[in-house]
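Hey L., structure's done. Input below.
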Amino acid sequence: MSSARLGRPTTSAVERAKGSRRAGLGAFEVFTLAWRSIRANIMRSILTTLGIIIGVSSVVTLTSVGAGVQREITSSLTDLGTNLLTVTTSFGGGRGGLIRGPVGPTVTVSDAEAIRELDDPRIAGIAPVEQTNLQLKAGTSNINASIVGTWPDYESVRNAETEHGTFLSEADLAGRNRVIVLGFDVARELFPAGDAVGETVRVDGVSYQVLGVLADKGGSFDSPNRSAFVPLSTYLQRIRRLSPVGPPAVQSIFIKASSASVMSELQASIERLLAERHGTLTPEEYDFQVENQADILASLNEVTATLTLFLGAIAGISLLVGGIGIMNIMLVSVTERTREIGIRKALGARPRDILAQFLTESFVLSVGGGLLGIAIGLALSFGVLPQVGLSAVASPSSVGLAFAFSAAVGIFFGFYPARRAARLDPVDSLRYE
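Output:
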């Protein structure tokens, strides 16, 4: 008759209990006993940590993607101009009445000229902009692009450096010259076989000479790649073809500050100037708005950070599920090893030795799952996601937080089973079938 049927302890249980004959166990011995128990049921241990693995890898991947999106937004705005103020029409302002707000654009070319006449050393450049979409033709090629009328300062204000040729000049603006600067994609599609500089492009039936081609800015937000630039005076005369009463309106005025430290002061000065010109006394009446690029960037970063935190929190739910799974398996393990616990106590193991062993087992499972989850998350972030066009930036803080949380889950959810094991009565445990 087998020893198991006679109620005798099995050989493996006795071997696992040998380390408890002394009054207490060292940290290394506790870890060794815990590791032996985990290896004895390796497949169950792997399945137990699956929730932790999925949770940690999801947190690492989603937070990396969120950080990557945030970096892309910051980089895109920086590439299109730094220390930037933007003046546009505020359709929520005005003097009130039955219809609140202006009935059309209120920012004009004369506003831009007035700002330039300030001759403020804090202003590094100014460029009013008016634009529309039109068809451009060159030979048999044609493309629909955004035609932008602006001033020469646009090149420095919006970092629109040319790769070939030159940008617009003050002479082109004063003479209303029919010249044009092409964005990278526009030039490539209209002139696929060679250099576009010096060639002729027809815009709305009018010929323009190509002065230059802008450098490639990629497909980022507000990229000039699919735009073409003409002098604002030429745009107003030949493309808009309007004779408005009063100074012509523009969609926006871009102003580059000399440094980031003066942006707030410069913004306030421009608001005072425009308020006086437009006859509006209080901010509630302003029919214009002056936006600070730093404020816009901060708002966008706040939105992306909130979204990243939200996604990370959702992914973190699986960590809790994984912790519950660890607790369930540890409770099953306590039941299965009741006789082993009784033998160990009979050989002199104290309750805290039993508590330490089971808590160590839970901790090792969660930490092991956390490390594997981090490896999978980083592999997805930098190996798989870039293949589908998503950039990722691994944040050491998010990786460390995910790992720390996985370790905490193991301790938290492993404490109850370990405490239950430590409290088992040795006599009842030895009788357990």
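The chain is about 55% helix and 15% strand. Residues 1-11, 13-23, 95-99 have pLDDT under 50 and may be disordered.

-- N.
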